[in-house]
Design goal:
Layout: H1 13-17, H2 30-43, E1 56-58, H3 59-69, H4 92-100, E2 110-112, E3 114-118, E4 122-125, E5 146-150, E6 155-161, E7 167-171, E8 176-180, E9 184-187, H5 189-196, E10 201-204, E11 210-213, E12 216-219, E13 225-229, E14 235-243, E15 246-252, E16 260-261, H6 269-277, H7 295-304, H8 314-320, E17 323-326, H9 332-340, E18 347-350, E19 353-360, E20 366-379, E21 382-394, E22 410-415
């Protein structure tokens, strides 16, 4: 394993907490968090205020959203080399079917929004197909159709259905794409809004947060909000169960469940340590596949546990940070200077990666915690890829496929002004 990946005391909260400066103990108040979220929303179009989502859209508006959700596949005419979950090749007819299954010709002049909630954790995908698009038949962990994973009880606006009727085109608060129809329960807007913008709610404190009922366990991603209804000494919580095709409310004694809190955690830099280190060694999952986190969902979940709403993808997170320092074009010496001035909890961005800054270790080495897929070693100019696929603590000297250390691949540091 690369020496860049730590396995010693630097993988503990205690090690980093002892290095805090007085300014890093300052608390952000609720009003300041709210103001930061407003600034973030102004910088990105990928965070959707579902409470304001219209009841109707023009067909061209809906079509634009469906095509945008296809991302890099939108204008592609042929698929190239991909494999399904059984390692069988994806054919051009498979790709053609998936594109045509978007049912663009079936869009009416005006599209009526339907309101739904997820009844389980499920995937939001770029195209409506049951086939996976893996680029390596011997390593089936990176599906290029994977957008993100949605939690149980995720409110979504449904705009369209696929030709085969198996998929719905869904708009969530932070991503759009196709989800299997049997993962949804439809409801009216009033009931739906109770989950979109609840008056009272609990917050999942990590990706290990779970609720058990009916001999099943529902797991939630960190920062997920669940609406509650005060009910005497014991609260009721909405849970995604179909009872005569309606959403049920389940009585839950939340005092016995330490996976949730009645409000976001206090937004203070040292809290980033407690939250982030709870993910240490958690499995990596591209787009939330296999129940894991990728680099951007790790960053997003850590931040939203404290009430800060970041976009889902790293490139949009980089655009949306309220304050940033650009690193492109700087020397390594100048990069190190800027990073060492960054506050704990700042996000370090490269073109395809995001990491949470911890500070400098005893050797003055800037260190980060992040969900790492892989790194490269080079011998005589030949690179060898090593998969890590978990949340790790490391320095910034691990290399990418171009034989460039991460420190020299960084494009910016994103942070909140008060902490700098």
């Amino acid at each position: 394993m690369s020496e860049s990946i730590y396995t010693d005391e630097r993988t503990t909260v205690k090690y980093w907490a002892e290095r805090f400066h007085a300014s890093e103990k300052e608390l952000w108040y609720e009003s300041e968090v709210s103001a930061a979220n407003k600034r973030i929303r102004k910088k990105t179009k990928t965070l959707i205020d579902l409470a304001k989502f219209p009841n109707k859209l023009r067909s061209d508006e809906a079509q634009e959203m469906i095509l945008a959700a296809q991302q890099f596949l939108c204008n592609r005419k042929t698929i190239g080399e991909y494999y399904d979950s059984d390692s069988s090749p994806i054919t051009e007819s498979d790709f053609k079917f998936a594109k045509e299954n978007c049912n663009l010709e079936g869009l009416k002049k005006f599209v009526t929004t339907r309101f739904a909630l997820t009844i389980r954790r499920d995937n939001l995908r770029l195209l409506p197909t049951e086939k996976n698009f893996f680029d390596d038949k011997d390593f089936l962990h990176y599906d290029d159709l994977q957008g993100t994973a949605l939690d149980p009880l995720e409110p979504i606006a449904v705009l369209h259905e696929s030709v085969d009727g198996k998929f719905c085109f869904a708009v969530s608060a932070y991503y759009t794409g196709w989800i299997v129809k049997d993962a949804l329960i439809f409801t009216d807007r009033a009931e739906w809004l109770k989950c979109v913008r609840p008056k009272d709610y609990i917050v999942a404190l990590s990706d290990k947060a779970s609720l058990a009922y009916d001999n099943k366990v529902l797991q939630f991603q960190g920062g997920k909000i669940l609406p509650i209804v005060p009910f005497g000494p014991i609260d009721q919580i909405y849970l995604p169960k179909k009872v005569e095709e309606k959403l049920s409310k389940i009585t839950v004694d939340l005092d016995e469940n330490e996976d949730f809190e009645y409000q976001p955690l206090f937004c203070v830099p040292w809290m980033f340590l407690l939250v982030a280190f709870d993910y240490l060694n958690s499995p990596y999952g591209w787009g939330g596949m296999e129940g894991g986190v990728d680099c951007s969902s790790f960053a997003m979940n850590v931040y939203r546990i404290m009430g800060i709403e970041l976009p889902r993808d790293a490139d949009e997170q980089e655009k949306a940070m309220p304050e940033s320092v650009k690193l492109t074009g700087l020397s390594e010496e100048k990069r190190l200077e800027e990073i060492k001035n960054a506050p704990v909890g700042a996000l370090l961005f490269s073109q395809n990666h995001v990491m949470l800054y911890l500070g400098t270790d005893d050797n003055g080495e800037p260190s980060v915690i992040h969900a790492l897929s892989s790194y490269y070693d080079f011998q005589n100019g030949v690179g060898e890829k090593h998969y890590i696929r978990k949340v790790v603590v490391s320095d910034l000297h691990f290399k990418n496929s171009q034989n460039v250390e991460m420190i020299n691949s960084l494009t910016s540091i994103g942070y909140f002004k008060r902490w700098r």
